[in-house]
Amino acid sequence: MQFIQDNPGLLFVIATLLPLVSFTLLLLAGAARGVLRQHQQNPTLKSLYELLGGDVTGRGPAYVGLASMVLAFGLSFYGFVLYLGDYPVHLHHSTTDEEKLPAKVEVAEKKEGEEEHHGAGKNPQAELRKKHRLEGWEGSVSWARLSFFDEAGTAAAPGSELRVGYYIDHLSALMFVMVTFVASLIHLFSTGYMADELNKQVEDHEVHAADGHYKRRGRFGRFFMFLSLFCFSMLNLLLADNLFQIFVSWELVGICSFLLIGFYYERTSASNAANKAFIVNRIGDAGFLIGLMILWTYLGTFNFQDIFQQVRAPALDAHDESIALAGTFVRFHDVEMPNRREPTKPLAGMKIDQKAGPNVLLFHADDHIHGDKLKDGVTGTARSAVGHERAPSIPYVWLVVAGLGIFLGCVGKSAQFPLQVWLPDAMEGPTPVSALIHAATMVAAGVYLVGRVFPIFTFDALLVIAYVGAITLFVAATIAVVVTDIKKVLAYSTVSQLGYMMLALGIGGWAAGLFHLMTHAFFKALLFLGSGSVIYGCHHQQDMQKMGGLFPKMKITALTMLVGVFAIAGIPLFSGWYSKDAVLANALSFFTLHREHFLLFVLPLVTAGITTFYMFRMWFMTFTGEPRDDHVYEHAHESPWIMTVPLILLAILSFCVAWGWPIYKADHSWLEHAIAASQPAAVENNWQVQIDAHAQHGANHGSYKDMVHESHAMAGYLALGVVLIGLAFAASSYLFRFLDPAESKEAFPGVHRFLQHKWYFDELYSVLIVRPGLVIAHWCRAFDTYVIDGIVNRVGSANLAVSRWHGWVDKYLVDGAVNLVGNVTLAVGLWLRNLQTGYLRSYVLFLVLASIGIWAVLALVVAAAP
Amino acid sequence: MSGAILLEHYLVLGALLFVCGAVCMATKRNAIGVLIGVELVLNGAGVNFVAFSHFNPAFRLEGMIFALFVIVLAAGEAAVALAIVLNFYNNHTTVDVDSAEELKG
Asked: Which of A7, A98, A168, B9 has the least C-beta neighbours within 10 A?
């Protein structure tokens, strides 16, 4: 226990590993069952097979997965509480800046200061213990040593090893609590939702076999196995203290998503959707890899803190004086050798140019830097190992490309424009999966990563992120207006909300974006599970055009979903209100500083109204009015408690998770302040740079916090107005029916068709990428068939001809010679046997004649001899 | 010295005996006759050995011993051959060597 107290970060490590344990158990059990199924004639093996569940697993796998998640939630929550004890959250930021603990590095520095302050009066042992404890929130172990690069070869030089580690701050701790909580509830919900899979024979109504519907064995265990693997990967992603570990988890969640989208893989649509998701994500991951390679090449490390320390100027120099460019990228020109492509330049020739310098200075822990010189030139000694007279640096362009590369990975994972096409198709998976992976957690991983690596993004990269987010949120919201599949509405709304988060991060609203990620996870999981409950109750009917008037039949589902709709629409006091207002307040602040980027404020504001419209449209179409399909209506029923309990819990959290004190103040959310507590210093630095630049034009906005605080009221009123307009439209169209949706459809047929085809993205990609890809594939196949196979076949037939000839030689020449010898011997023997008459007298005669012959020969020889 | 008996006379006698024996072996169909021929051949050789032993002091001892060997062998051979002939007769009721042709190739 004391060990855990000293290393509280390990709580999260254990929480991460728990789902891995449950995955391993389920995998082994499943594999064993697969093997044992073949050997049922053996009574021992048969009983073992029965023990492992037999043909039908029962709910065991669900309990294993659920237990691991609940336990992980308990550990995470305990860890979070411990963390809050060490790093408390202060709700009212207006008092002093010192109370806030923006980043870990600064905390460590401050802590040392505190120790000097209080050290004399307190028990030194307790101080030591506390220091030790504070260090226990991060740690890492060597994973793979690549090489020794330093001359001595004793210590690990930078860039020589990959590590696995954990790094806990407010953000990751909160994410842990959120993910494990939502995952626990979704495990519980799935236990009910996936009950069909418990049957020995499941009939898939969407797959047609030769004899009616396709039938297969239930896959209950497999579902929970994948779910456990996903939970492990997701938690590992949150836990990681370095980019490479994140990349590994990134791919793992990708494969889980693939496996779960294609869970009903007999359906063509499901397997296509799984492939689409996987391939689109590969595009993003290619960018991610490029980013990783650039960072590794120039910085030699994947650790977040090391990376941030290198790319951004430190706050203090070697003599504890503040540095003029603290917290920014120090860009510089080299005047002496301007055309050299090499980024390393002699220090003396360096000229700082924050606007257009082609290189960015890299800082290392053991650099000796003089702060006062960081304005017009740098003096200092660089790293000890190499290049004393050179400044380590990275070309600015590469830094932008690295940031955009990593962002491309996030674009794929978080389904942002232009890679948003996979997420709506991913709804082919079971609904709990859509809720957990494709709404609450995995798709948020992209946003989380952008938040994590925020300090490496340059202004250019951030602007790209902001615009991508803005375009995404608008495009997805407009499509959601015309979609009639209840899950697809939610899918597009997820894409749209993820766009909000990206936009917020891009404009520098770090805490706002991640805050929205948190609240969104709760209410979107709620909405998805609600839709799952509706689909389950309507016997797998997903089309809202066949629903309607379901409220009396499923009151709990309807009411909890209404909470979710309120939250996502941003009705005051619901969680979404706080986060969306925070995003819009940041957008308004950004707009104030950069009038030319007005779209970054207008699009999210308008989309807030659209969001309200389509979410209420969904709710009204499903639960109110007259039933559109009597068959569906008659058979509809409320789901069992195992499914409604998660709904109720999520509804409570969707309502109040963002509350602070006083409740009615949108910028007093406790959750937002907790997230802001781990905000990197770079966020405020960025704002300060922009505000200072703007101040040169005569406007004074004070600090970032003041500015956002001022924007909050304005943004809040505007948003509320837009939301009310959206609500009014939805209510008049679908509740009170002043407006007929069919008429508005006919009024704008072009717009409707355009939206129904999802802005023709799929068609565009089909023309631009898929079909050319297929053409190239056909070429490749033709090349393979005619050239490669041709060569192989020619070689084969040539070989055949040589073999034939060789066979002929063997048969007629070699064998012929051998046979000839044999035949001759035989003939001679046959001829000679005639001599052996069996007559004694003839033998004697031969003897005599032979003797005479020999003597005659001898006589001749002797006579002939000289 | 025309009355003296020289080595050549013995050799001619041995050769005559040998040729008689050989002709006897080659012409007789009776197995006993063949045996007689064999004896004649052996004795022809024996005469030679003794003659050389007598006329060549270098071969005195060896000639005698070889002659004795020939006599002993002839005796043994006659015993074995007669036994074979008897058995042959038992099986075939004849001693015609031409009917002993089962081993021909």
From this structure: A98
Instruction: Let me know if A26 is exposed, middle or buried by CB neighbors in 10 A (0-12, 13-18, 19+).
Output: buried
Please calculate the CA angle A799-A800-A804 and round it to the nearest 5 degrees: 120
Question: How distant is the Cα of A843 from the closest Cα of chain B, in angstroms?
Answer: 8
Query: How many beta-carbon contacts under 8 Å exist across A and B?
Result: 39
Q: What phi and psi, each to the nearest 5 degrees, are found at residue A317?
A: -95, -170
Which residues in chain A are contacts of B15 at CB distance < 8 A?
A: none
Helix (H) or strand (E) holding A208: strand A202-209
Task: Tell me how far apart the alpha carbons of residues A587 and A584 are, in angstroms, rounded to a whole number.
Answer: 5
Between these two residues, A155 and A856, which has the higher pLDDT value?
Answer: A856
Check: complex ipTM more than 0.90: no
For B34, which DSSP code? Answer: H
d(CA A519, CA A657): 7
User: Is residue A239 within 8 Å of A227, Cβ to Cβ?
Assistant: no
Residue of B nearest to A832 (CA): B105
Is the CB of residue A179 less than 8 Å from the CB of residue A445? no
At residue A543, φ and ψ (nearest 5 deg) are: -85, 120
| pLDDT tens readout for residues A796-834 | 999 999 999 999 999 999 999 999 999 999 999 999 888
Chain A positions in Cβ-Cβ contact with residue B27 (cut-off 8 Å): 841
Cβ partners under 8 Å of residue B64, min gap 6: B49, B50, B53
pLDDT tens digits, one per residue of A156-203: 455 567 888 899 989 999 999 999 999 999 999 899 888 888 887 888
Distance of alpha carbon A123 from alpha carbon A349, whole angstroms: 52
Strands (E), A498-576: none
Q: Which residues of B touch A832 (CB under 8 A)?
A: 105
Collect all residues with Cβ–Cβ distance below 8 Å to A108 and sequence separation of at least 6: A134
The percent of chain A in helix, strand and coil, each rounded to the nearest 5, is 70, 5, 25
Please give the average per-residue pLDDT across A192-216, as a whole number: 81
> Hey, is the C-beta of B35 within 8 angstroms of any chain A C-beta?
no
C-alpha–C-alpha distance, residues A391 and A393, integer Å: 6
A101 — pLDDT class (breaks 50, 70, 90): very low
Q: Residue A619: what pLDDT?
A: 92
DSSP state of A162: E
Report CB contact under 8 Å: A840, B97: yes
Most confident residue range from A301-310, A466-475, A639-648, A692-701: A466-475
User: Cα distance from A858 to chain B (closest Cα, Å)?
Assistant: 18
CB of B105 within 8 Å of any CB in chain A? yes
Q: Is the pLDDT of residue A150 over 60?
A: no
- CA distances to A195, A428, A435, A488, A646 from A432, rounded to whole Å, are 12, 11, 5, 14, 11
What φ, ψ does residue A41 adopt, rounded to 5°? -70, -25
- What is the distance in angstroms between the Cα of A811 and the nearest Cα belonging to chain B? 33
Residue A358: the pLDDT is: 81
Structure tokens at A819: 């046979």
Smallest Cβ distance to B22: which of A834, A835, A848?
A: A848
H-run or E-run covering A60: helix A60-86
What average pLDDT does range B14-39 have in this prediction? Answer: 89
A381 pLDDT band, cuts 50/70/90, is very low
**Inter-chain CB proximity B100 and A840 less than 8 Å:** yes
Query: Cα separation of A534 and A541, whole Å?
Result: 8
Chain A residue with minimal CA distance to B99? A839
What's phi and psi for A437, nearest 5 deg? -90, -45
Supply A260's token pair.
């779960």
pTM for the model stands at: 0.77
Instruction: Using an 8 Å CB-CB cutoff, list chain A residues near B99.
Output: none
DSSP state of A553: T
Token reading at A448: 């989380």
